[in-house]
Amino acid sequence: MRNIWKIGLIIALIAALAVGGSGCTGGQRALGWSGVTLAGSELYCGTTDGRLISLNSSTGTVRWQVNLEKATGIYGSPLVVGDTVYVTSYGGRVFAVNAASGALKWSSPTPEEVKLPDAVISGLAENNGRLFYGSTDGSVYAISAADGKIVWSFKNGDKIWGTPVVDRGVVYIGSFDKKVYAISEADGRELWVFEAGGVFTSAPVIFNDTVIIGSLDRNLYCLDSATGAELWRFTAGKWFWGSPAVIGDQIYAPNTDGSVYVLGGETGQLIKEHDFGSSFAASPSIVNGQLVVAAAEDGKVVVIDDDSQQTRELALLDTTVRAPLASSGEIVFIHSQTNETIFAVNALTGARVWEYRVS
């Protein structure tokens, strides 16, 4: 039944994109899955078969791995808060495990709650002891980080795949109903809503007092965080699937048209287009506060220097990359689709420090 559900979800995405993803041709299945999350010297990653893995980030050796019951697959990146790793699952549950041992602390919905789980592709955000995520049932949930009990839920018009972001008491999240919502962190009230021409699949990024988010209508939007008013938009050739990266007042936005666009954060004016000829679905990472590292779907890993805007190809991985990147020091971590492998690559030299075959 779960495989049938997955097929149905893919069909639903194709249908949604046929209506809302202007500038695109053909169908598209679910892109990406769990990125890696770093906490000190440890790395955490979810797998498509429902395991949560902890590795030493320096060596790639396994510390522990745990099969999460009824998870069936993990698409959202893990979230580490203190001594706990939180992760959503395609099986509809949220899990809290001990970061040191992998021992299960709790799973949500709790046995006392009657809600039947729907698939969760969204990752988690945390603030003030609460976790926030979106579900394919069309709701945003706030649950207690202590025990997983539901605090409030907010219903929107369609499924949600993107991870929320929380800033100054407000939860921001995009939806398949082509809208971005601002929701009160305290009680789940709608504060404002912005409607675009296509669905939203990525996490918003907070830039000063604005919300930056890309849509499958080919536009990257900048919204006033207090009112939701559109301040500017930038139109590219195809989809903005991943989230942009920000260095100073410049925004780096990868697009499935093969380019990474560098925009002025205040105006959205194009500063530079870097055309790499390869589709970008993964969210980039920033290394040493200066280098933007992006990975294309064909495994091409590129670097853009924020000061000089010079580019170079860092590595060519024999794999498909769609998960968000992460970095620590000079090392960038990439979770690939083909053979599901985690790579640690030196962002200065391109040397592969280690790789770990997940599947």
From TrEMBL:
Domain Pyrrolo-quinoline quinone repeat, chain residue ranges per copy: 76-353
- What's the domain of life for this entry? Bacteria
InterPro entries from the UniProt entry: PQQ_b-propeller_rpt, PQQ_rpt_dom, Quinoprotein_ADH-like_sf, WD40/YVTN_repeat-like_dom_sf
Gene3D superfamilies the record matches: YVTN repeat-like/Quinoprotein amine dehydrogenase
Q: What is this protein called?
A: PQQ-like domain
Identify the species of origin: Dehalogenimonas alkenigignens
